Amino acid sequence: MTADVLAAWNDGPAKARIVEFVEGVTREGGVDYVPPSERIAVFDNDGTLWCEKPMPIELGFILKRFVEMAEADESLREQQPWRAAREGDHAWLGGAITKHYAGDDSDVKVLMAGILQAFDGQSVDEYAEAAGAFLRGGKHPTLDRAFHACGYVPMIELLAYLEAHGFTNYIASGGDRDFMRPVTEEIYGIPSERVIGSSNALRYVEDEKGGTVTYAAAPDVFDDGPVKPVRIWSRIGKRPIFAGGNSNGDVPMLRYAGGSRPALRLLVLHDDDEREFAYTAGAEDALATAERDGMIVVSMRNDWGSIFE
Amino acid sequence: MTADVLAAWNDGPAKARIVEFVEGVTREGGVDYVPPSERIAVFDNDGTLWCEKPMPIELGFILKRFVEMAEADESLREQQPWRAAREGDHAWLGGAITKHYAGDDSDVKVLMAGILQAFDGQSVDEYAEAAGAFLRGGKHPTLDRAFHACGYVPMIELLAYLEAHGFTNYIASGGDRDFMRPVTEEIYGIPSERVIGSSNALRYVEDEKGGTVTYAAAPDVFDDGPVKPVRIWSRIGKRPIFAGGNSNGDVPMLRYAGGSRPALRLLVLHDDDEREFAYTAGAEDALATAERDGMIVVSMRNDWGSIFE
Question: Mutate which of B37, B168, B170, B233 to disrupt the A interface (most A C-beta within 10 Å)?
Answer without folding.
Answer: B233
